[in-house]
Structure formats: structure tokens, C-alpha cells
Amino acid sequence: MFLASAALMISILLSGVYASGVVSPYWDSPNDENSLRLSKGDSKVVQFELQNMVGDNDATFKLSLQSSQDVAQFTEPQEAYLVEAGTSVPVPIKISVPSSAQIGDTYRVTFTAQEAKTTAPGQFALGSAFETSFNVLIGEKLAVPQKKAEVLGSKQIIIAVIIILLIIALAIWIKRRKQ
Amino acid sequence: MERKKSVFVTTIFLILFALLMMPPVSAGIVDWINQVKAGITGRATSQTVTFNLTIANTAPNITYITMNATVSPTENTNTLIIVNFTAWDPDGISNLDTKGGKVNFTKTGEALRQNSSSCLQTATWGTYYANYTCTMYMWYFDTSGTWNVTALVNDSSNGVAQNQTVTFTYNQLSAFVTHPAALTWASLSPGTTNQTSNNDPLVLNNTGNKNITSGNVQINATNLKGETDNTKAIWAGNMSVAILTGSSAECNENTNQSAAFSPGVFTNATNGTLMVGNHSVANVGNRNLYLCIRTIGSELTSQSYSTTSEGAWTIKIL
Q1: Which ipTM value was assigned to this complex?
Q2: When you count CB atoms within 10 A of the terminal residue's CB, does the N or C end of chain B come out lower?
Q3: Which residue in B77, B171, B174 is closest to A130 by CB distance?
Q4: Which residue in the set A14, A51, A127 is minimally distant from B181, CB to CB?
Q5: Do B305 and B185 belong to one domain?
């Protein structure tokens, strides 16, 4: 509540401790170490997470996505995301790279979460917001690794040779015995 | 004659095969031969023969590690991480230390994260294999990125197995908490200027692991309208924020240290950062914000002024 008149005290009452957060699976970092790497035509679902771990108040967030050529879309869009106190809520996002993309292209994705704070009469409400961005880098399609042929160990080879020789020796012995 | 030969060859192969199948044991064979030699000298036909067998210890091996490839930090606290690994000991599982497993996490530029008593042998299978389960914790302020995992286990002869083939990604968390729960101004009168709060700062603690650099702590202030007469307001444009105080620094835009709000627009707290750190340590991982009401309109009347009409203020980190 904010009161003003001659010689009156003014106070801004913030209702309790406010805390929340957003986990992102990709983010800006030197040398694009933590960027998402995809090939043209690829798509991938990545998961953000809303957290409300401190305090006793539930929090409601409104989310928005901005991306070059709209490559990023919410897979389950909602008007608002309720995060109960002490919990977290996953937010899946699908990244779809157009087939017209070129190797070396970069798409920028920005995820914003803003707390939708309700204000009771006479209160001063203070909410939180988070903005996080990352790059989607377009590269060559990774070749599917060929399954390596199994290589026998030296001990296994020796055993195999011995068994073969034994079989041959037994066969000779049996043959000569018959003669 | 030929038949005898083939029997001989087969016998030789069977002996070789039996030798190859024998476990790797070294024994005092030469001693034994010498003693047999002594036996055919004609002295004693029977005597007690002592075999001195030394079975060499073979170090165990960690053959498999499982854990989540991606771990998300938890706001303002630590996150439990379970690491399971399988150890193989050719000398048998009884040779493995049931409480001797260890796991640590490393990252360039970061201190070693380890828990020396974090692993327990949880299962054994077959003659040579044992499973270990390790509990580790990562804090909210631990750096995001790729962390290397090292799993170790000892055997009873101090043989050590070590496996460093696994990594995990620690995600990035943007988070903060604010306090105190109330900001107050004392003895304000209409028409006065440069009024500072008497119980600020408004403190932001970084409860995640993302460094918020200068220009990326922003506030969207709304007008505080009268609840009885909403034509009167404490206008957002008449308020400012700064990371400094003293001599009303938070009120003085000319010093380039404070920023006046514009309603509906995110204004960055000049030079305001919010870096990662353990905010329970003094002056680490926090940011103080000082607020000023530059002008109390002379037209203001005694009533409640609040954010009810225009919505909450918002602090945003990027």
C-alpha cells in the first residue's frame, strides 16, 4: 500500500519473498559450446523448466518465444503456466529447421517467462521475469556411425585355433582307426 | 604306428588346451621340480613338500557407468545426482571394497566436486561383478556446461580401478529472489522531491548459475494510481533506481548512476549486474537496488496508491 498526504509515511508492501527461475537446455557461451546443432530439415524437442522452489506462494507465468523464421514453437501452448510452490514445470519447445536452411546459418531463439502477478487492492506487487536466448547452428548431417566389426582377442584366437586343430586331429585319428 | 602318432598329437593338444584354460597363477614350479629331482636321488621316497604359491592381485576394472546425461540445477539449493557403476574384479567380488567406491566431478576452472563417502556397493552378480551407487550434489551456483565424471573403486590389495569416460551437462538456470518484504518511506509530503526509502536496498540474490551482466537487470515500473481517485498518481517517471546510495545518488540522473523509469518499459538499473555465487556469503551473488521518488506531486491527496490499476512492477534478468 502506498499512502501519501502531508507528513504521512509511505510504504510499499511487497507480499513475501519472491523467487522463481527458468532452466534452459541451451544457452549463449563462448565458441557456441552450448548452442543447439541441427541439420536442415531436422526437428528436435527441447525442454525448458519453470521453477518456483523458494517460499510458499504459487506463481503463474506467461511465456513467449521469439525466433528467426519461427523455427521455435511451443508443443503444448498454454495461456499461462501455474507453478505451485516448491515445484517445477517442464515446457517443451519444438525446433524445426526449414529444409531451405544452408550450412552455416544461425537461428536465434529467445524464451521469455514473465510472472503474471495479481495485485490485491492496496498492495504494491513486484513480479519477476526471465529472458534467455540461444543459437541454433546449422551444420552437415552427421553420418550414422557404422557398427564396428567385433574383433577377437588374442586369447580367443588361440583357443579357436586349438579347438580346430583338435577337431582335425580327432578326425584323422578316427579315420585311421577305421582303416 | 600312425595311430600312436595321432593319439600323441591329440594328447599334446589337450594338454596345451588345459594349460591355456588355467587361471593366471604363478607358483614355485621350479622349486617343485627341484624337489622331485631330489626325490630320485635315492634318498627319501616320501617327504613333506611345501608349495609356496603366490597368487598375483589383478586390479579391478570399472566397466560401465550410468547417470543422467543432463542435470538441471535447483533454484537456491543443491541437486541430487545419482551415479551407478559396475566394477569387475578377476580376483572375485569379495576382493572389492564394499565402501571403497568414489565419484568426483571436474570442470576446467572449477574446484573438484567430490564426496568421499558417497558410494556403496548395492549388488553383486556372478563371480566377478559388483554394482555401486553413488550420491553426489551440485549447487545452484555451480557453473553450467560439461562436467567430467570420474568413478573409482579399490580392492583389498589397494588395486584401483578408474573410469573417466562419462560426462554430463549441467544446465543453465536463471533465477533470483528479492527481499525485504516491505519498502518504506517516512514523512513524505506532497510537493517534496528526492525522497529515498528508509529501509532499502531492495536486495536481489542470484539463486541460479547464470551471470547477469551490466544492463541486464531491468525493471518495468507502472504508475501507482490512487485507489479512491485514480486521476492522481505517483508517476513511474517520477521514480528512479540505482545501485548506489548516499547523497541521494539514487535520485540524481545527472550522475549517470541512476535511471528514471518509464511506465511499461523495461529500464536497466545502470551498471547493475547480478553475478553467480553463494549468496549466503557476504557480498557474493547479490545486487542492492535503491529506489527514489524524485517528485511527490503537489496535487496528491491522502489515499492509498497501489499497483492495482496498472499492474505489478516486474524485475527482469536477461
Answers
A1: 0.78
A2: N
A3: B174
A4: A14
A5: yes
